[in-house]
Amino acid sequence: MEYIFPQQFMFGSATAAYQVEGNNTNSDFWAEEHAEGSPYQDKSGDAVDHYRLYREDIALMASLGLKAYRFSIEWARIEPAPGQFSLSAIAHYRDVLQACYEHRLTPVVAMHHFSSPQWLMRFGGWGSEEVPERFAKYCEFVFQELGDLIPYVLTFNEVNLPVMLREVFSSIGIIPPVGIDGAAWTAPGWRASAAQLCGTTADRYVTFHMISDEPKIALLMEAHRRARQTIKRLQPNAKVGLSMALSDIQSVPGGEAWAQQKWQQYFEQYLPALEGDDFFGLQNYTREVYGPEGRVTPAADAELTQMKYEYYPEALGQVIRKVAKALTLPIFVTEHGVATDDDERRIEFIRRGLQGVHACLEEGIDVRGYLHWTTFDNFEWNAGYSMRFGLIGVDRTTQERTVKESARYLGRIASTKVL
Q1: Which of 103, 134, 100, 97 is nearest to 119 (CA)?
Q2: Helices (H), 158-255
Q3: Strands across the sheet with 10-14, in order?
Q4: Keywords on this record (predicted)?
Q5: How confident is the model over 310-321, as pLDDT tens digits?
Q6: What confidence category does residue 254 fall into, taking pLDDT thresholds of 50, 70 and 90?
Q7: What is the dihedral of CA 381, 248, 161, 159, to 10 degrees?
Q8: Listed residue (23, 105, 91) closest to 58, CA to CA
Q9: Residue 172's pLDDT is what?
Q10: What does the pLDDT average to over 231-253?
Q11: Which of 76, 301, 368, 370 has the lowest CB atom count within 10 Å?
């Protein structure tokens, strides 16, 4: 059976600056990697050298048939010191955007994808009351310089991930991929070393991934509002939103209250921040099932990904439906993917996920696009280079790119609009 998507439906792939560019030495994550006792398995180093190879990479994406590229701008490059903005960094991202247009890829830009300037930690990081204004000033500079080239912008990637990390990773007994102590949600000793590398102390070292209590969440939502206002003032036609990581929250008998509580924590508490947005970025990888005692572990015979998530591509369509009940905004799938060395399983994940998206379109839900995570096998935070999410493999000794069949598969769908 063929599934035909609207001609204007956007298909593409996504990256994050810190995970692909390499040598983001002014970022807080660089400090975390190099801290004494750091749990990061690898140093990011050159990553996949996308900061240098972006033109070749964008040409490769386009040659495969992809029609959109979601990437992030690194705040630590744009503003390496408070109030000091880098014209050379802006020139770089201007050329990234121009390369997208040259190759007919629609750019979707995230202003913040987890990593922040080291200097922000000296002001108290994401716990500082100054952070909404500082973030808005960064957005102002970028949009003064590049706004006419940015049609879609996410202020933040996965605003709810800190809460999910606290809840989800502690429940399945693994270290969160950002190195947070999931069980206690406190800063382990190595974070004091990371704070020192940022020129501050552990009590002021509040990274994006520690925004999990009400005061910090309120500051984050205000930062989003201030950024949106700034962007719309400078570029009224830019479409502004944010993204959330949303598992498909399910329940078995007796687990309904648990499931409702989790959905409120992961999604509903953030809804006030979306008032005035132009679209919603939805990101999904798996499901969570709750019973009378809380989270239910996957069945013994369940297929798990490298990230220890349950392989469950049907979650995507089901989450879209749940979000559409609460929002009237257009929905973009801004991430969906699977960590696996078996590319056939990746193709199957894409196929079944897109079948769910198509069913939502048939039901009249306003879904505008699908951006796969991720373009390349890249640096996956404290898991290092061990997780294979990419459509394109990379030999990091030579930086040679190897196109996987999943990339060609998604590219054909992007070009023909037929699944």
Answers
A1: 134
A2: 161-164, 170-172, 189-197, 214-234
A3: 239-241, 152-154, 106-110, 68-72, 10-14, 367-373, 331-336, 280-284, 243-245
A4: Glycosidase, Hydrolase
A5: 999 999 999 999
A6: very high
A7: 130
A8: 105
A9: 40
A10: 98
A11: 301
Structure tokens at 78: 């744009």
Q: Which amino acid is at 226?
A: R
Amino acid 353 reads: G
Q: Which 8-state DSSP code applies to residue 332?
A: E
> Which class does domain 10-298 fall in?
alpha beta
pTM comes to 0.95
Q: Let me know: does 230 contact 141? Beta carbons within 8 Å.
A: no
- Give residue 167's pLDDT: 63
CB proximity list for 174: less than 8 A, separation 6 or greater: 182, 308
- Cα–Cα nearest to 95, from 53, 137, 60: 53
* CB contact set of 264 (below 8 Å; sequence gap of 6+): none
User: Tens digit of pLDDT for each residue in 395-416?
Assistant: 999 999 999 999 999 999 999 9
Are 11 and 391 in contact by the 8 Å Cβ rule? The answer is no
Q: How far apart are CA 375 and CA 60, in angstroms?
A: 10
Distance between CA atoms of residues 133 and 158, nearest Å:
20
pLDDT tens digits for range 18-36? 999 999 999 999 999 999 9
Angle between helices 87-102 and 131-146 (to 10 degrees): 50
In this structure, the strands spanning 152-154 and 400-403 are unpaired
Domain limits of the chain? 10-298
| 187-220 tens-digit pLDDT | 567 888 999 999 999 889 999 998 988 999 999 9
